[in-house]
């Protein structure tokens, strides 16, 4: 579950190519140089004091390059982080929820085109048709509860689950189903309720019996704020003073959107099983990892509970997670059969996605650049674009610079140079920006982050 909100090492590229060649020449055995570089990548935010501890697993072609804990699992007692520590994995939970739905579909117990009211007849859809498919790829338009101010206090309360459904169901839809994509925890909460209704079991039992036990994930479980689990890392948040104890959260509320706990070993096993055809039928796996579409046919870069956007210039099937005290990242690079899992027991400015991407680059080398020279009229794109965002309106300012465009987010964000990809497409790292014209003039901007796809209008 994403919290109430969701690089490259200079001079690394040439050496990373050499390291990758060394790794291949040794039949998959990692070189000491590669291991020391991964250590340096992971240790940097720990040494800077922005992360308490991290657990990392890197596996390529079935061979473990590294499985290791860094920093501490408990700051108060200065307990070193074991490699097999368990963490709250937040929104990585969503791919397990999606897989459970697909298993039930393949047993002919539901259809992805069924309206949610078939299983939750009392849900007020406000005259709209919301299918399970729209829940799975964040295109339902239902208000996300983690973006609601009222959820700030609600998350600490012990109430029936229906109370949370009532809270977000009473809100107007953010958009018509299928019109846009806004990352949505409410949708996956509802999918959990559908799973329980169809399977006749609690969500936690379905995931354990149908997924954890099947794959071989003995250290994975539904998280709890009360139950003691061996080797579970303590979580920390950050504020202006540095690291602090994580805020309280009742695990009834992340639920099927973000309440699973796991470790790197189990998540490697999950990636190998899921992408190796051991979890779903081939057609269902393909469906889960194929980009969805909006109502107008526009492709998004998200499947069912998992992103299919590029990372660092490489094709990836991945997802991150953020929850009080923990951040997580699980990445699979299909063209290179590489799995990188990074779990950290700190929610703060240093995230596991950057760490995982740097590790992938250390193993594989820097991906070829997709940038093209821009020779068009930059002024034709310049201006302010506004539209919906996750929990708040989105405002982007496109400016010009010699040789291309810049992007500024919000009113005070620094301008960042955009990379030209061809046609009307530019990129801000892994975020794609596609401009659209009307009567020859640029009037709209589609911004695709890999987990969201919003349409912004150009302001006069």
Feature tags:
nine-stranded antiparallel β-sheet; alpha+beta; single chain; globular; 24% strand; 460 residues; six-stranded antiparallel β-sheet
Explain briefly what this protein structure is.
This protein is an alpha+beta fold and 460 residues long. It has helices at residues 13-25, 32-47, 93-106, 132-136, 151-154, 161-169, 185-199, 203-215, 255-258, 264-275, 282-288, 352-364; strands spanning 53-60, 63-74, 79-80, 87-88, 221-222, 236-239, 242-245, 260-262, 317-323, 326-333, 338-344, 346-347, 383-387, 394-401, 404-409, 416-417, 419-422, 425-428, 431-438, 441-448, 453-458.
What does this structure look like?
The chain has 460 residues and is an alpha+beta fold. Helices cover 27% and strands 24% of the residues. The protein has twelve helices and 21 strands.
Number of helices: 12
Radius of gyration: 22 Å
| Helix share bin | 25-40%
- Proportion of strand residues: 15-25%
Largest sheet: 9 strands, antiparallel
| Structural class category | alpha+beta
Topology, pairings included?
Elements: H1 13-25, H2 32-47, E1 53-60, E2 63-74, E3 79-80, E4 87-88, H3 93-106, H4 132-136, H5 151-154, H6 161-169, H7 185-199, H8 203-215, E5 221-222, E6 236-239, E7 242-245, H9 255-258, E8 260-262, H10 264-275, H11 282-288, E9 317-323, E10 326-333, E11 338-344, E12 346-347, H12 352-364, E13 383-387, E14 394-401, E15 404-409, E16 416-417, E17 419-422, E18 425-428, E19 431-438, E20 441-448, E21 453-458
Parallel strand pairs: 6-12
Antiparallel strand pairs: 1-2, 1-11, 2-3, 4-8, 5-8, 6-7, 9-10, 10-11, 13-14, 13-21, 14-15, 15-16, 17-18, 18-19, 19-20, 20-21
Helix pairs in contact: 1-12, 2-12, 3-7, 3-8
């Amino acid at each position: 579950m994403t919290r109430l909100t969701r690089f490259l090492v200079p001079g690394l590229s040439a050496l990373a190519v050499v390291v990758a060649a060394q790794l291949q020449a040794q039949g998959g055995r990692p070189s000491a140089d590669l291991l020391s570089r991964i250590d340096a990548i992971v240790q940097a935010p720990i040494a800077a004091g922005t992360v308490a501890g991290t657990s990392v697993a890197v596996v390529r072609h079935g061979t473990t390059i590294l499985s290791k804990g860094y920093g501490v699992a408990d700051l108060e007692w200065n307990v070193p982080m074991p490699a097999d520590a368990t963490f709250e994995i937040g929104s990585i939970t969503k791919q397990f929820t999606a897989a459970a739905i697909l298993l039930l579909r393949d047993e002919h117990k539901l259809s992805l085109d069924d309206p949610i009211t078939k299983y939750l007849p009392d849900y007020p859809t406000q005259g709209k048709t919301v299918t399970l498919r729209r829940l799975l790829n964040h295109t339902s338009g239902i208000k996300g509860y983690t973006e609601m101010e009222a959820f700030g206090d609600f998350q600490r309360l012990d109430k029936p689950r229906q109370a949370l459904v009532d809270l977000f169901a009473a809100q107007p839809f953010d958009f018509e189903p299928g019109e846009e994509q806004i990352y949505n925890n409410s949708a996956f909460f509802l999918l959990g309720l559908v799973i329980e209704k169809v399977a006749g079991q609690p969500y936690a039992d379905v995931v354990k019996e149908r997924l954890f036990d099947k794959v071989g994930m003995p250290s994975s479980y539904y998280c709890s704020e009360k139950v003691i689990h061996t080797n579970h890392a303590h979580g920390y948040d950050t504020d202006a003073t540095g690291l602090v104890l994580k805020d309280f959260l009742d695990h009834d509320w992340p639920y099927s959107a973000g309440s699973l706990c796991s470790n790197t070993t189990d998540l490697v096993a999950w990636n190998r099983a899921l992408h190796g055809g051991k979890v779903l039928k081939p057609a269902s796996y393909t469906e889960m990892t194929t980009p969805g579409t909006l109502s107008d046919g526009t492709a998004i870069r998200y499947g069912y509970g998992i992103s299919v956007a590029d990372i660092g210039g490489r094709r990836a099937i991945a997802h991150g997670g953020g929850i009080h005290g923990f951040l997580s990242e699980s990445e699979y690079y299909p063209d290179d059969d590489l799995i990188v899992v990074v779990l950290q027991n700190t929610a703060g400015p240093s995230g596991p996605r950057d760490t995982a991407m740097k590790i992938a680059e250390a193993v594989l080398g820097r991906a070829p650049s997709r940038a093209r020279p821009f020779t068009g009229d930059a002024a034709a794109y310049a201006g302010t674009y506004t539209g919906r965002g996750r929990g708040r309106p989105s405002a982007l300012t496109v400016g010009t610079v010699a040789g291309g465009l810049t992007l500024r987010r919000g009113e005070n964000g620094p301008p960042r140079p955009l990379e030209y990809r061809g046609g009307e497409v530019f990129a801000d790292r892994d975020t794609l920006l596609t401009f659209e014209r009307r009567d020859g003039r640029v009037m709209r901007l589609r911004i695709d982050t890999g987990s969201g796809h919003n349409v912004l209008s150009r302001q006069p």
